Amino acid sequence: MKYLDEFRDPELAKVLLGEIEEAITQPWVLMEVCGGQTHSIIRNGIDRLIPAEIEMVHGPGCPVCVTPLEVIDKALAIAARPDVTFCSFGDMLRVPGSDGDLFTVKSAGGDIRVVYSPLDALAIARENPDREVVFFGIGFETTAPANAMAVYQASQEGIANFSMLVSHVLVPPALRAILDSPSNRVQGFLAAGHVCSVMGFAEYEPIAEQYEVPIVVSGFEPLDLLQAIRDLVRQLEEGRAEVENAYPRAVSRAGNGPAQAMIGDVFRVSDRAWRGIGTIPGSGWELAEEYREFDAVSRFTVTDIDTMESPLCRAGDVLRGQLKPDECPAFGKECTPRSPLGATMVSAEGACAAYYLYGRFRELEEAAQ
Amino acid sequence: MTISMEAWSCPLPLRDHPNIVLGHGGGGKLSAELIEHLFLPTFDSGELSELADAAVLAPAEGRLAVSTDSFVVHPLRFPGGDIGELAVNGTVNDLAMRGAVPAHLTAGFILEEGLALEELAGIATSMAAAAKRAGVVIVSADTKVVERGHGDGVYINTTGIGYVPAGVDIHPRRAQPGDAVVLSGTIGDHGMAIMSVREGLGFEADIASDTAPLNGLVADLLAAEVDVHVLRDPTRGGVAAAVNEIAGTAGVGIALDEQAIPIRPVVKAACELLGMDPLHVANEGKLVAIVSSDAAETTVDILRRSTAGRDAAVVGEVVSSHPGMVIARTPFGTSRVVDTMVGEQLPRIC
Prior knowledge:
The complex is a heterodimer. By secondary structure, chain A is of the alpha/beta class.
């Protein structure tokens, strides 16, 4: 398949692995920022193909995982209202709130729809003027342009029954938070290709310079990841700390100008709480003043939110790269995809789910050796 | 198969009500007219036309096999088929997966008030065609009507009766280490066809459901005296669910070769786009056969002679390690666990 099979070629993978082995002389700790990369790494066993000197730790780039519990609880409360049609990306439906998830609300009679784009939610609002249609606008920079576009169009067309529950998060402040942490071990980053396709990679250059940490923009296919790991290892071994682009077929330094302009019009930077991590200053987007009428939180007064995380869940440590999912005492025991304690066990991009889905065989293999 | 409604014209007694009304389920004249003028001529079955409370069937040789399934697909028509065809093939295939020769079907219809009679006639027509293709006779039927808003147009339950020939023993517990895992064709077509048309993803023109009867393939294998240990049709939950069930029942491990699994490029692309694993996507015209390893090649050759099995391939093996667990070997020489989904597959966010 065009643009996929070429990046899954086992022979080329061997060449890249050889180049990594050639370059490496000492241990390095690398973080892949995006949960999509985590899944590809674990699914294809890339962490086991690369030299043992490299430790891959998994980053916070799973939008479903870092959406704060308070926001999930607000979503559950809004979705349960009889006048509301609540639209969401599919993988938010199973994320546990303090008491149940969106599936629970749906089975209790809530009108909840899975959509593939916020513009689908806008179309539902257009066709159902008597319903309050709310879209759950979460995600990193990747989903922001379409979310911004939906709000912009609602404003242009005067679709008053549309609103958005916004919980957008940004990658660069999260990288700074990780690097500022006294217990940080990460020595190099694979930046998230999809985020960079929107934002470009120029905004990572000050981080690389200030923290003297190499950052390589990476795609999601096995060869993309191996190439980015090779480039990171070469930088580390040569003592360089630059931003490099190993995903040029999708990413440019400046990114997508019109998308950024749309984001700049509709959103403004705000402080944002990250589930399991805490509040990171300037790490999110909220609706700008002139679009505030489309803010679901101010439209629907949601009170009595009393959040309660599972005391066993250590998703925060996982998201900061300080704990491997299978090192968590609850992993595979109290916490499974069937009864997840934290969002990292649910999402298609969550590190705990990746370990659970693809990784359990490794224990058997290791035991057999 | 696409349905041509041009051939169907509403019989005179039904013309007063172009849509289903509650009275069609009331057991009175309207019910009788619906049965007499819509179902009976379409299904064309001697047993059914007797309008008795029960069909009385002569026993055939072999052991009796019975299977029931309900069909609630939305939309009612989709690229490659409709709910009627699915309702026949689904139950025929369940019988065939035990090595039974399907013979009779019953059909129960839950109709929603307001359903166009023309639509119902189209569904009945495609059921009749599917039954003919699979060589089964619809011997008993029932209709009920629910109020508008209480159904999704039409729900269909079918129960099938078949006969297992002497000497045939096909059961998941018979999978044993060393056996080969054979797949009769490409995976994910049905699930992605439904999703595409339901969600308007724009793949409708390129992906069609694979709904098809599999009893012909099974008959070919048994006629050639292939040592078939297990058969499963990987419907809901996809190939992953089917092989996990086999591994669990037989207490064996199964190792799939990721690269050997046939999948159409457009289905693969649709799955990539939505973040779905094709191994978890439903099929309605494919079978997984577990056969002794020396019969693997013959099995593939026989399957490939039929249209329904033209892309058949050996996709893995049964192993004694990791009992109850299915793994997939990647092109990179690594392995991953292939698990059963917890609930529905959910499209990812980005």
